[in-house]
């Protein structure tokens, strides 16, 4: 039994270069609700996360986020149209593909190395 109802849950995403990461997420379609020198809250739809000025290579390289969308192909088209691979050198951009565990995943890493799994749940 919970001592009190849960009203929110957010993760703290690391950022090596906060300004570059803020631009990346804004380009991807997130909005900044508020920010200061150390942290910023990003939102897309009703979902939010906190981008923090924090970087440890081992942590960032193993940090993953999952974003479920209706159409991963539409997200891929936007990522290509905005030329993310050239605008943010060194990031990983892989088109949606069926994974052995039965989910289509578009892989996208941010400038810090955080890996996003953008999924749409299609079976084929």
Automatic annotation (TrEMBL):
Organism: Alloacidobacterium dinghuense
InterPro entries: Glyas_Bleomycin-R_OHBP_Dase (IPR029068), Glyas_Fos-R_dOase_dom (IPR004360), VOC_core (IPR037523)
Any matching Pfam family: Glyoxalase
Lineage of producing organism: Bacteria, Pseudomonadati, Acidobacteriota, Terriglobia, Terriglobales
Protein's name in the database: VOC family protein
Residue ranges constituting the VOC domain according to the UniProt record: 6-121
């Amino acid at each position: 039994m919970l001592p009190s109802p849960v009203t929110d849950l957010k993760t703290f995403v690391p950022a090596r270069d906060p300004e570059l990461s803020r631009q990346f997420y804004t380009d991807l379609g997130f909005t900044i609700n508020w920010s200061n020198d150390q942290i910023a809250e990003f939102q897309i739809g009703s979902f939010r996360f906190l981008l923090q000025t924090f970087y440890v290579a081992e942590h960032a390289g193993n940090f993953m986020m999952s974003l479920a969308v209706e159409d991963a192909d539409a997200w891929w088209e936007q990522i290509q149209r905005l030329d993310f691979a050239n605008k943010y050198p060194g990031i990983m951009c892989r088109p949606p593909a069926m994974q052995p565990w039965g989910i289509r995943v578009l892989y996208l890493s941010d400038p810090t190395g955080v890996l996003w799994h953008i999924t749409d749940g299609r079976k084929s």
